[in-house]
Amino acid sequence: MELRGKTALVTGAAKRVGREIALAFARQGAAIALHYRSSSAEAERTAAEIRALGVGCRLLRADLDKTDETLRLAAEAGNVDILVNSASLFFKTPMDEPGESGWDALLNANLKAPYLLSRELGNRMRAGAGGVIVNIADWSGLKPYADYSAYCASKAGLIALTKSLARDLGPSVRANAVAPGPVLAPGDFPEKEKEAVAKKTALGRWGSPADVAHAAVFLAESDFINGTVLVVDGGRSLY
User: Fold this and answer.
1) CB neighbourhood size of 215 (10 A)
2) How far is CA 66 from CA 8, 105, 116, 158, in A?
3) Which pLDDT tens digits describe the chain residue by residue (239 residues)?
4) How far apart are CA 226 and CA 232, in angstroms?
5) What three-state secondary structure class fits 8?
6) Structural contact between residues 69 and 48, judged by C-beta atoms closer than 8 angstroms
């Protein structure tokens, strides 16, 4: 797909990895529908950077933990050529902690919302000129780690959903996933743990949000890649 002149909805695009993805598509000439939940100031700053590149940018707010708001986002986005499901929740769900609220929140935001957006916008793409869906999964969806069972399950489900979308929406709509590894630590991540993660990565270092953004653009542009998962983890999953 030639990205210039196209429109991309990028969820969770106010900051962190989603921001870098939105900017990467904008640099290729795509107009951006920038979704955010609560980071309105960051969303405005990112939108200003995107518009400075000479392309349009609309701001769309929605809480993807809520079905009605997710469907409203799909309606407000209108016709788009590219959907990047980047918004994600991330927190521990240890097995010795009771309660289902964490599971519900993670599965709603990380799996159900991408499904609903892909269904609504994917069917719209299929009825029109076609399009592309890129889901931002996680390497832990292929190789889960301890104490994050709900998060890992949500990302494993997103990988399976990606493959289903490739079949169900094809041939005019392609669906692929990026599975990042250590590219951006949470703000409270201890420095010693960051160093330990780097040592367990084949390249011996962390990546960056730009690495994920480059992969997302590549998958959107590559017309004969469909239903695949591109792991961008510096070799972390080899250990």
Assistant:
1) 22
2) 22, 9, 11, 18
3) 999 999 999 999 999 999 999 999 999 999 999 999 999 999 999 999 999 999 999 999 999 999 999 999 999 999 999 999 999 999 989 888 877 889 999 999 999 999 999 999 999 999 999 999 999 999 999 999 899 999 999 999 999 999 999 999 999 999 999 999 999 988 778 899 999 999 999 999 999 999 999 999 999 999 999 999 999 999 999 98
4) 17
5) strand
6) no
Number of H helices, E strands in the chain: 8, 7
Which pair of tokens denotes residue 230?
């591109």
- Annotated active-site residue 36? The verdict is no
* Active-site position among 36, 115, 148, 151: 151
Q: What is the pTM of this model?
A: 0.96
User: Which one, of 179, 156, 211, lies nearest residue 21 by Cα?
Assistant: 211
Alpha-carbon distance of 223 to 129, in angstroms, equals: 14
Please work out, in degrees rounded to the nearest 5, the angle formed at the alpha carbon of residue 76 by the alpha carbons of 71 and 81. 95
Neighbouring C-alpha atoms within 13 Å toward the C-beta of 86? 30
Paired with 230 in beta bridges are: 178
From the centroid of its chain, how far is CA 69?
Answer: 18
> Hey, what are 158's tokens?
């997103």
Dihedral (CA of 8, 9, 14, 15) sign: negative
The type of residue at 101 is: S
Structure tokens belonging to residue 152 = 């890992």
Residue 134, CA distances (Å) to 3, 117, 129, 229 in order: 14, 12, 17, 10
